[in-house]
Amino acid sequence: MTALDDLAPVPFHDADALQRSRMLSRLADTELAVALVREPSDDRIELRMFPLEGAQVALACDTEDRLAGFFGQPVAYAAMPGRVLAGLLRAEGAGLLVNPGHPSEMLLDAAMLDWLTGALAAAPEEAEARLRLTAPAPDVAQALSGPLGQRLADMRGLIAGAALVGVAGGQGHLLLIAGAPADRHAAIAKALAETLAFLPPQPGGVDISFSEPSPPPGALLFDLTPPQPEPETPKPPRPPILR
Question: Which intervals carry biased composition (Pro residues) (predicted)?
Fold first, then answer.
C-alpha cells in the first residue's frame, strides 16, 4: 500500500468530491514513474502514449515496481512529481492513467488535468492581522481538520504549530502559522493554499497568516512539536559471574 492507496478506501471514480480532491492533492506531491518510449537522451524525454477512450493517455505509477509489473518487464521511465507531469500533459491536451490495477487507480482526462493545474496555481492573498479572532465555525472546523492536519503534518519540524480561527463579522477564517522561518513563508503559504484549493469552498474563504497572536478560545489547534523520545528503561544489573 502506498500513500495514494491509503486515500482510496473506495475507488477514485466512485468516491465523493472530497476524497477525490484529497487524492489529487496527494498526487500532485507524489513522485511518479511515467513510462517513456525510450531511455531519456540529453535530458529530453518522450512519453509513451496509449489510445484510451478516444484520447491519448500517459501511464504512470507511484513506484517503479508497479510500472514494471504492469508491462511484465522493466520499462524506460522518468521520475517526476505529479504536478510537473500534469503540466506537461495539459500542454499536450492528453490524459493520465495512474496506478492501473491498484486501489488508487485513476484515469484523469484532459479536462481534469486542466482543473488540477489550475488548482495548483492557487496563491494565497495577504491578510491583515488586525482582526478580531473567534472560534472557527463548527462545520468549517470539521471539514478542514483532516485535510489540513495531514498537510501540516508534512511540515513538522518546519513550523511549530497552526491554528484555524474565525474572523468576527462573517469575514471568513484564518489559518495562523507559528514558528515558520521568514524565508519559507511564501512556500508554506503556497502549499497550504493549494491544499485549500482542493477542498470545498468555505463561506468567506480561508486566508493564511504568519502573525502569531494568541488563538482565541475554541480555536482548532494543530500541535506540530516533534515528539519527545521516550527515556530508555534502565537495564537491571547483571548477576555476578561466579568462578
Answer: 226-243
